[in-house]
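Predict the 3D structure for this chain.
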Amino acid sequence: MSSLMTRANETPRKLLDDGARWNAVKRRDRAADGTFVYSVRTTGVYCRPSCAARLPRRDNVAFHATWADAERAGFRPCKRCRPNQPARAEAHAALVANACRSIEEAEEAPSLAALAQAAGMSRFHFHRVFKTITGVTPKAYAAAYRGKRVREELASRNTVTEAIYGAGFNSNGRFYAAAPGLLGMTPTQFRAGGTGNVIRFAVGECSLGAILVAATDKGVCAIEFGDDPDALVRSLQDRFPNARLVGGDEMFEQLVAKVVGFIEAPARGLDLPLDIRGTAFQQRVWDAIRDIPAGATASYSEIARRIGAPKAVRSVAQACASNGIAVAIPCHRVVRTDGSTSGYRWGVARKHALLAREKAA
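Done. Predicted structure below.
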């Protein structure tokens, strides 16, 4: 933790001008914490921008790039906001990162009580902090990570039995009980490319071209745009080469019509059961994206901050590119920091069109 503080003070972040800094102090803006500190000449104390202490007079205030600069100028840290220590959000992020490592390294998923005790929090407080930072509960994170290990082991091991122990399960029974929830099918079906797994699908047309919707018994597993309907079906076959693909009946086609209706008129909203498969990190990103309301956008860096991984901007972009469920997981609402649109799995033109319709609605 101290090394993080040292690095933060060795490399100051980009600073605002004094007017913007003062406005941040008046707002007690937590987002400005870490970008500067301010000192008060009459008290000899320096504080974070978000400090809840009484607002000083502007002519008594000076700004400093780091807490070390403030101390070199002769000021001492405020005992209320402790500006020379990691912010609470940073401390929480570090504790959650440690908890994630504990989950990933343990053969058996640690209990909530054990994780909370290691973090020095009550179970309720830890659960809330963990979900705020990662977007998922500790139990869901452990399940997603275990699912990733299961998929990797099944793909690399010679037998299912080897995969069972490679994934950290200590009995066949527990593995087979958990596998359908982790994989969406049995382990043997997964190793065989989806053999025996039924996937219903239908292809329709919308103003953005052809659209394929596919679903397992758990929920929608794919929504894909394209210019060639046959190519969309071939792509689904490539993903599950041995699955039993079944053309959708009239009821399933109503689902496709619901998706098309949302694309043409986003004000209707879209609430579908989803069969989401991805790594724990991808699922955190996708959950954060689903929280972006229609008509709004968020940058890749904003999403990274929301999931407690502010430096993982590139990984967030990769998770967006890996999303195979268009509009239901609305990665078209994620843009560059300057607000401009960037790449989109189904073409930038479709991304522009979706955003324009949502804003108009």
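The chain has a mean pLDDT of 79.
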